[in-house]
Write a structure and sequence with these properties.
Helix content: 25-40%
Number of domains: 1
Distance between the termini: 36 Å
Strand content: 35-45%
Number of strands: 9
CATH class: Alpha Beta
Structural class: alpha+beta
CATH architecture: Alpha-Beta Complex
Largest sheet: 4 strands, mixed
Shape: globular
């Protein structure tokens, strides 16, 4: 995967500058990302299996679509870009909340990210970017919760944080 220049921010999401994504993870610099939840008409949650060639967390389940906010890009522009790049779809997105995480990634990389979380309802076909995504599959929320309890290592930490926050935000918004 190609390295990208992304926005560096402080712990409060205030802009500080720009840096390569790899440097941000190596030095533990705060930066911005988006997570997108795709639900189908039955309320099932779409998971993606990350490609085998991803530099971080290959072959792990993660959010329906996700990615870093590129230099000079907004959260609002990054979310539909990532959804179209990874899944080949362009449905209406709805912002549901934001949260931050600070944790160690595999290979001792440091992930300090501010996330904006979006969702959409979609029942159509997908056109996957095979460099990003091996496959996608809809699961019931109960099945995902069960899998997280039984085998948490098959999920990215970002997914687990996003999954938990999605339902908190959903409840907060009365959805």
């Amino acid at each position: 995967m190609a390295d990208e220049i992304i926005n560096v921010v402080d712990e409060f999401d205030n802009p500080l500058g720009k840096e390569w994504k790899s440097v941000c993870h190596a030095k533990g610099l705060w930066h911005k990302s988006v997570l997108i939840v795709v639900l189908n008409g039955k309320g099932e949650f779409l998971l993606q299996m990350r490609s085998t060639i991803k530099s971080i967390c290959p072959n792990k389940y993660c959010m329906s679509a996700a990615g870093h906010v590129l230099e000079d890009e907004s959260y609002e522009d990054a979310a539909p870009r990532e959804l179209e790049e990874e899944l080949g779809i362009t449905p209406q997105l709805y912002f549901i909340g934001k949260f931050s995480t600070d944790h160690i990634l595999p290979n001792n990389k440091i992930n300090k990210e501010h996330y904006h979380l979006y969702y959409c309802i979609y029942d159509g076909e997908f056109n996957l970017d095979k460099e990003e995504v091996s496959y996608v599959k809809f699961f019931s929320v109960d099945k995902i919760s069960e899998l997280i309890k039984e085998t948490p290592d098959q999920f990215t930490k970002g997914f687990i944080h996003g999954f938990t926050n999605f339902f908190k935000f959903k409840e907060d918004h009365g959805l």
